[in-house]
Design brief:
Number of domains: 4
Structural class: mainly alpha
Order of helices and strands: HHHHHHHEEHHH
Number of strands: 2
Strand order of the largest sheet: 1-2
C-alpha cells in the first residue's frame, strides 16, 4: 500500500550535495555520521513544524496536528531502520552510528511530543470534563437509593442537594439530556420516599406511646406481685438457714474423718515411692553400664573397618564415629572411658584414610605423567608421518618438471584444500 503524503518521512530536508538522487540510506548516512548536518536538518525540520498553527477546536485541526507529529515519528523510524540495515562495510562504523542514533531518536521523539502537545492537552482536558460530568450523573443516580438507615430528614436533605445541582455549561447535548432525566427521576423518587418515611415515623411514634402505657401497667402489677413473693421468700430463707446449719455440722464431721484417712494413705504412698525410686536408680545405672560396654565394642569394630559385620570405606567409618556415636548422660559414669576409646579410634581411622589418599594421589600423578608421555610421542610420530608424506608428494610433483619451491607450494595448497577435488592421504 502506498504511503500518504502526510505519512512520508521528512528526509528531503537533509542536504546531500554530492548525490544527485539520494536514497534513504544516503540521507540517513549524512545525519548519522555528521553532527553538524543533523543539527542543520533538525533546525529545518523544527522550522517546518513551527510553521504549523494547531487548532484543537475541530476534528480536522486535531487530525492535522496528529499527522504532523506522525511525520516526525516516521522520520525517526526511517533513520533508525536505515541505521539498522547498513551493509557489512558500514558495520565497521557501528560505534559512530550508535553514538549518533540515540540523541537523534531522543530529539525527534521530543519534537514529536512537542508538536502533538496541543491535541494531547485537549484530549486530557476533554477526558477530565467527561469524568466530572459522569461523576455528577452517577452521584444523582446513586442518591435515589434509600437505605434502612435513612430518615425522612436525611432523604429530604439529599433531595434538596440533588435539586440544587446546575446542569448546562461544560455539558454536551447528550450528557445534558441524560443528566436532566436522571435528576428528575432521582428527585421524584426521593420525594416519594420522604413522604413514605414521614408516615412510617408517625406510626412508630404512636406504637411507642401505646407500648409505654402497657409497660407502665405491667410494672405496677409486677411491683405488687414482687411484694408478695418477698414475704414468701423470707419465710423459706429462714427455714433454709436452719437446715444449712445442720448440713454444715454433718459435713464437718465427715471432713475430719476423711482428712485422717488421707494423711495415713499419703504416708504409706510416700514410703512406697522411696523404695521404688531406689530400685529405679539401681536399674538405670546397670542399664547405662551395659549400653556403654556395647558402644565400646561397636567402636572397636569400627576401628577394624567394620559396621554391623560389613566392611566400609574410611569416610563412612569416620562419620559413624563423629555423627552417630554420642557421648552423653545415657553412658552414665563410663562417659570418660567411652570418649577416650572413641577419640583414639577416630585418630587411627583418620591416619589410615590419609595414608590411603596419599597413595591414590601418587598413583594419579604417575598416570598423568605416563599419559602426557604417550600423547607427546603420538604427536611427534604424527608430525614425522605428515612430513614424510608431503616430502614424497613434493618429489613426485618435481618429476613433472617444476622446481622444488613450486612443488612445495603446490603440496601446501593441496594440504590447505585450495585445489578442488585433490587431497593428500596421510
Amino acid at each position: 500500500m502506498a504511503s500518504k503524503p502526510d505519512d512520508l518521512p521528512m528526509l528531503a530536508l537533509i542536504e546531500t550535495p554530492n548525490i544527485s538522487a539520494p536514497t534513504v540510506d544516503d540521507q540517513a548516512r549524512v545525519v548519522l555520521l555528521d553532527g553538524e548536518a543533523f543539527d542543520a536538518f533538525y533546525a529545518r525540520m523544527k522550522a517546518e513544524t513551527d510553521k504549523h498553527v494547531p487548532d484543537v477546536t475541530t476534528d480536522k485541526g486535531r487530525k492535522a496536528v496528529i499527522a504532523l507529529a506522525r511525520r516526525v515519528t516516521t522520520t525517526k523510524t526511517a533513520i533508525t531502520a536505515a541505521a539498522k540495515g547498513l551493509t557489512e562495510a558500514w558495520r565497521q562504523q557501528t560505534a559512530t552510528v550508535n553514538a549518533a542514533r540515540k540523541p537523534i531518536e531522543e530529539k525527534l521523539a521530543e519534537l514529536a511530543a512537542e508538536v502533538r502537545r496541543p491535541v494531547t492537552e485537549w484530549e486530557e482536558a476533554e477526558a477530565a470534563r467527561v469524568a466530572r460530568n459522569r461523576a455528577v450523573i452517577d452521584d444523582m443516580r446513586q442518591a435515589a437509593t434509600v437505605t434502612l438507615d435513612d430518615t425522612a430528614a436525611s432523604v429530604e436533605e439529599r433531595g434538596r442537594r440533588i435539586h440544587g445541582i446546575v446542569i448546562g455549561e461544560g455539558w454536551t447535548a447528550d450528557e445534558e439530556a441524560e443528566a436532566v432525566a436522571v435528576k428528575a427521576a432521582t428527585v421524584q423518587a426521593l420525594v416519594a420516599a420522604r413522604n413514605r418515611l414521614r408516615q412510617e415515623e408517625a406510626d412508630k411514634a404512636e406504637l411507642a406511646r401505646l407500648r409505654q402505657e402497657a409497660e407502665e401497667r405491667a410494672a405496677r402489677e409486677a411491683e405488687a406481685e414482687a411484694a408478695r413473693e418477698a414475704e414468701e421468700a423470707a419465710r423459706r430463707a429462714e427455714e433454709e438457714r436452719l437446715a444449712a446449719i445442720e448440713r454444715e455440722n454433718e459435713r464437718q464431721r465427715q471432713a475430719e474423718a476423711a482428712e485422717a484417712e488421707r494423711i495415713a494413705k499419703a504416708e504409706r504412698e510416700a514410703e512406697q515411692r522411696v523404695r521404688d525410686e531406689a530400685d529405679r536408680v539401681a536399674r538405670e545405672a546397670e542399664s547405662k553400664r551395659v549400653y556403654a560396654r556395647q558402644i565400646i565394642e561397636h567402636i572397636k569394630q569400627v576401628g577394624l573397618g567394620m559396621i554391623g559385620g560389613q566392611a566400609y570405606p574410611y569416610g563412612i567409618l569416620i562419620r559413624e564415629l563423629t555423627d552417630k556415636i554420642a557421648i552423653d548422660d545415657s553412658l552414665g559414669d563410663m562417659q570418660g572411658e567411652v570418649r577416650t576409646i572413641r577419640d583414639a579410634t577416630l585418630a587411627n581411622v583418620q591416619a589410615a584414610m590419609e595414608r590411603q589418599a596419599e597413595k591414590a594421589r601418587e598413583a594419579e600423578a604417575n598416570e598423568q605423567r605416563e599419559r602426557a608421555a604417550r600423547e607427546d610421542a603420538a604427536r611427534a610420530a604424527n608430525r614425522a608421518h605428515v612430513s614424510k608424506v608431503m616430502s614424497a608428494a613434493k618429489e613426485a610433483i618435481m618429476t613433472c618438471g617444476v622446481t622444488e619451491d613450486q612443488a612445495k607450494a603446490i603440496v601446501m595448497a593441496i594440504k590447505a584444500n585450495l585445489v578442488p577435488a585433490v587431497t593428500i592421504q596421510f
